[in-house]
Amino acid sequence: MSGRWLAIDTATDIASVAVGTGATVLAGTHAQGARRHAAEILRLVDFVLTRAAARLADLDGIVLGDGPGSFTGLRIGWATAKGLAQEKGLEVRAVPSLLAAAAGAAVRLGAVPIAACFDALRGQVYGAVYVIHADRVETLVAPAVVTVTELARLTPVQPQLVVGDGAVRYAGDVSAWVSAAPVPLDQLPLAATTLLALVERAGAARLIDDLATAEPVYGRPAEAQARWEARHGRPLPDPSRPAR
Amino acid sequence: MADVVLGIETSCDETSAAVLVGGGASSAPPPPPELASLIILSQDIHKVFGGVVPELASRAHLAALPAVVDRALAEAGIAWSAVDAVAVTQGPGLVGALLVGVVYAKALAYAGDRRLIGVHHLEGHLFAPAVEDPHLAPPFVALLVSGGHTLLLDVPAWGRYRLLGATRDDAAGEAFDKIATLLGLGYPGGPAIERLAREGEPARFTFPRPMRDEGFEFSFSGLKTAVLHAVRASDDLDRDRPHIARAFQDAVLDVLVTKLERAVRVTGHRIAVLGGGVACSRALAELAAQRLAGTARVAVASPRLNADNAAMIARAGWWRLAQGEESDWTLDARADLPLPGLDVGAPFPHSTFRTPHSP
Fold it and tell me: What is the pTM of this model?
């Protein structure tokens, strides 16, 4: 028996929110345009909860897009989940955003290798390759910052499809790897509805034990941090000191 | 009227939460609220970079904010169920940092069916002394000085602000940071310069007081250049460093306080409020009190309320809520949020701006 979850994904240009029980979506909606995410996210949450006649207290938990993706976008989804879950101690789980995109394509293709690529700029993508089975997820290549060509080299079997804005942007590299045309995100089911389908599937989600301090998988350090670490040859020191 | 307001501030590199407890709606007007707790988590990481790195600040806010809020509630002895409203800094500030606070605050308000109010960061600074001094009320003049702002305001009433002057280039706090870097003192610059200046002799160096004798506007770039020349000309910077710090601080404070005096004289107000991070400077508060003695009372909050903090945001939010204002779920962070109620028109004839004889 599946529980009832609120799903939130803000990793890409499309912010989506849904309420449902596993494969059954009770309500879902979205807003397009990264600059609208912060203003719209609570309205989206309110819309789906109202439409599903659900209250936060009735939920089994919240499932989030874990990243990688837009740094700011991820924080909007995560800050929303932290604020919604904190008082009532709701369970929170996170599913890789690349997996959500691949699973969107798997709805039609079934349990075949599918690659997902989000544009990471500078000629690179956040890329991963999955096989989504009915009861579990098989990760062939875990999320990494790579070029499409590097991702192809890392992948043990040829995927049937490559999805995501990174696949579209580097369509030339994708065509040298996979014969099918890359599929943009807006042609896939909403990420939030896919999160609902994945949240209770083996190998798909990580449980967020300490929600207060948890962070999404950004995929990359901040640029200033990367430069500092490259220059000094060691990790940046702990970013905070005790509260006063 | 909100009895218990949770304040949240994430506009720059301080993650802060505070709880204000009001006196209830049984009396009219209701008594001012009292501060029940204030937690400020400073992000030390930026010292490595000599300034705030916005992306790192945003990440640190997300990782720290819920625990900071939990601690603020625990220290106040307030249960979630008792929180009536959430006040959050909407802007101005670093937009990525603001977004974390705004979205999180909206979700907290939504989850508990609470009222929500977005607060202008500078209005928070104006209310900061009122957190500790419940009887502080306009009319007053306010000098807001921080790393991001240098503003002189005429405040005839809460919510009504007339801009007297602002900086044409660097903010005063920014000038402190830059000179501290130049002198090898690290970040943030204000406290480091104030400490070193205590060892300096005031007459060893003399720096210009830009625009001191006219109007209400500020400019610190020329002063910065003069200090740069002095540093370059020094044949023994270790020897000269405290004296340069002293002369620089004296020049900045002289300009700030001279214009504050002028604003008090022109407006006739009997209170002068100092706010913002630079108002943590004891030297500034002492000079202002000395030069305004017999003319106006200088109201300055304790240092933790002058730094970026959530208590001042909760206090300003409490006042806005008391006016019947409320934000909706579409509240968004704005890096360039205009100060509500700000009148930027020239309020006085230009001739009144000049000081006939400088102090």
Answer: 0.92
